[in-house]
Amino acid sequence: MSASALSPAVAARIRRYSPPRRYLPVAAAIALLIGIFGAGSLRYQGFADPQVILNLFVDNAFLLVLGLGMTFVILAGGIDLSVGSVVALSTMIAASTLESGWPVAATVVAVLVSGTLLGTLMGLVIHYFDVQPFIATLAGMFLARGLCYLISVESIPIRDPGLTRFAQGTVPLPGGYHVTPSVVVALVVFAIGAWVLHLTRFGRTVYAVGGSESSAHLMGLRVALVKVGVYTISGLCSALAGLLFAAYTLSGYSLHAVGMELDAIAAVVIGGTLLTGGRGLVLGTMVGVLLLGTIQTFISFDGTLSSWWTKISIGALLLIFVVVQRLLTRRQT
Amino acid sequence: MRDLVRRPLFWPTLALVLLLALNTAVTPSFLSVRIQDGHLYGSLIDILRNGAPVLLVALGMTLVIATRGIDLSVGAVAAISGAVACVYIAGSSQQAATSTLLTAVAMAVGVCVLLGLWNGLLVSVIGIQPIIATLVLMTAGRGLAMLITDGQITTVVSPGFKVIGAGFVATLPVAILIALAVFALTAVLARRTALGLLIESVGINPEASRLAGIHARTITWTVYVFSAFCAGVAGLMIASNTSAADANNAGLWIELDAILAVVIGGTSLAGGKFSLTGTLIGAMFIQTLATTIPTIGIPAEANYLFKAVVVIVVCLLQSPKARAALRSRRPRRATPTVRTETA
Predict the structure, then answer these.
(1) Which chain A residue lies closest to B263 (C-alpha atoms)?
(2) pLDDT tens digit string along B27-36?
(3) Which residues of chain B does A275 touch, with a Cβ-Cβ cutoff of 8 Å?
(4) Cα dihedral angle (B271, B274, B280, B284), rounded to 10 degrees?
(5) CA angle B49, B54, B60 (to 5 degrees)
(6) How close B18 comes to chain A (CA, Å)?
(7) Cβ of B207 under 8 Å from any chain A Cβ?
């Protein structure tokens, strides 16, 4: 017998082995993240500093939370265009209630409840009246922006000592590095989101509904609960992201977060979640957010590139990943 | 009476008339149109003139939506169009010359047609969902416009360029004439030839249309080019109105206004059916609404709120389930539905 003493069956299996296709887009995104980061650290001094990596989280904590909510919606086969406006509305509610002397806890509850309610409303309209998610959340987007302007047209500063302490506080890490409390909040929420999506019955139903709503219905799964639920979760996440954003900017303004829904969608797509629903990982969204952040860091380290290159490169990345997704799904069918 | 109510354009027209009546009640001079310096003046003319860009974009959007697609990139395309024209005029040695103006307009429209070809390629050949394919250009487009204008608000001094958005010909604003000309041309092409029918059949079922011998791919591609062309002309109007290209704000959210106009006009987002006259009424409704809100003493910025209410009401009126619920007044069990892909 020769050295290849493996039985033919095992040898064939090894030859035929390829990583599960559903992990390919995430793997590609991670590879790209490492690649861009590697290129940056070779080109610019101080790029590879761990604090730069930590700052990716600090500057994008709200986007992580936003992307988490969007992941739920997209996995269930929908889309949520209202998230940017809900972030703005949350900063406005937070700033105006704090200004009129509410305790921080009451403000937080008010913001979270209003965001969640808005999300639930959109979910109800989408599920029970068959309005397309795109249009229903477009209405939600207009509604939230309009409410912002009703509260105030001007920017409102946040001077509340409690929230300021939260915003300016640091969480020291070994080695002299630090992150902000926002990062801790975002990571905890992210972990809860990952647990719900990957390890609970609700999460599995989200995947099933995204894969095929009619099949899920015929299987007796609770389609209505999931379809309304994902928009509720997205609303809650947007409101929480709004609070983090308010802490980040220490102000409430109706023009905050214009176009942020695109960043969130881009992060989810780049992270390998299929836009038609049913396939994707929460981890991918985190990779997507970090990738967007790394591009921004890259551009700010390189003084010669203007900031609008960020938008162009995000668009280009989005395109590449969408085309890759398309090719992968086409081969399967 | 019953037949009248059942007509597809009855509700949008009624809404527009009610809105106009409300305005007239608040400002009695609202409907009066007078001639001043040989130009027509009045609130109605202003509404038409300011509504021209939205109407143009909405026309392109109507055909795209009729093929069951959507074009989110129109705002970015409008910004790019204005940027190209203004940067060319500003860089030319003779800013006011007619040849400069014509070249600038041709370049801007040419670039937009290219962008439309790009969108059409992604949708019809590569087969990406329209909302995502055009999202790419929506995200990257404003960056491109910034790149063209180098991040500045590029201002131009060109009387000829000013005419496109703010000029008058034979007492009528040029912007209205351009928009109406494109409207008439589209209406003739779509309704006096088989083109409209073909577009609708592609919207109902591209595969079946292809098997029936329709060049479904070409038609899909063409509507995206047309949409980008319309957005380009609208972008020229917007830039011309201020004699400046503002890459960040030109055409901001115009895609949403256009979609809203199309939906109000009775065109279903599920594709397969469109009404150009409905879009015209829808665009005018949106513009009238934007004029009404400050008139009745609400901050102009709050018009987003009203638009949201309009979207919801229109969608609920269009939704068969909501209608059924209204009719029977009895809660019904949700029936399993086939998921649409245009989500």
Answers:
(1) A135
(2) 887 777 777 7
(3) 129, 132
(4) -40
(5) 130
(6) 22
(7) no
